[in-house]
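We both want to read discrete structure tokens more fluently, so let's practise on a single case. Would you write everything just below, so we can both look at the same thing?
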Amino acid sequence: MPKTSAFRLSPFAPRRYGMHPFFLSFDPGKEEEFVTSYNVNNLQYMRAAAILAVLFWLIFGITDMIWIKSDALHNDWLIRYGLVVPALVSAIVASFQKKWIKAVPWLALFGIVAASLGLMLMNRTIALGEGIPFEAGHLIILVAGFTFMRLRFSHALIAGVLITTIALFDVHTTIASPSRVAYDFILFVVASVFCGFACYAMEYFARHDFLLQQQIESDRKQAMEAANLRTAQQLASTMAHEFNNPLAIIQATYDLHIEPELDDMEPSKQEAMKRIARMVFRMQVLVQRLLTITHLQEKEYINGQHIMDLKASSQAGAKLEPAKKREKAEAV
């Protein structure tokens, strides 16, 4: 995981954080996780921007009654309320469907392009003339697409190219002035560069926050695992201490009073005494394992329950078992 204490926005920072220097993409596995998180986190902003766009389209449709002639107003409303607004509303409605979550940026891109196409159709229908700066509408859509809609940089680039193409085609076919087309081309290129940098920076820091969140989550899990391990080790040490005393008494009693008499006992009783010795030895090995727990590992028990795998969780093994006890167990 990259260090995050010295994050700087520079041409070399993306590679330091595992990002593509231009498209800002991670490796495929992490990229899919980020895209899903980004779409979900920014869904409300995209919806709010789309709803605000619908309101503006509705409001400006009313104000068009003031300065658009009545014969052209019908076509204006047909494009505005029959094409653009339904396209924006359909994108908003689709964003509430779970199956469209991954396609949210494309829904936003669809709404942006629909608005730009609608504006072009309205300009061609109304025929405002060269003196009217109707490029402002396309610029507003461009700025909204790059910033307020919070599109990812790659999608914003597509939106910028499409909006610029539509706007220049609009100017070229409506106004035959080459100087006006050249002026608008420079205007949209400069606007795309500045808006693109803003969009790049927003996604850059969003990805940086995503890495920070992953680091925080990883540290939290490690802290929880360490705390659980300390608790398990303390409990294991307490149990080992409490078991050692009775085991020592049982072992001493067996060594002093039972083992010397084994040869004189009946076979069935002799086997029972040997079983006691084996169980005592087994308990001593388990106590050793309790004292050498290094990590927590579970195993399935019964009825779907899980218990700690003591052997796998500890370092105690054959090399830690006292040689004398092992020899005694083998003899028994």
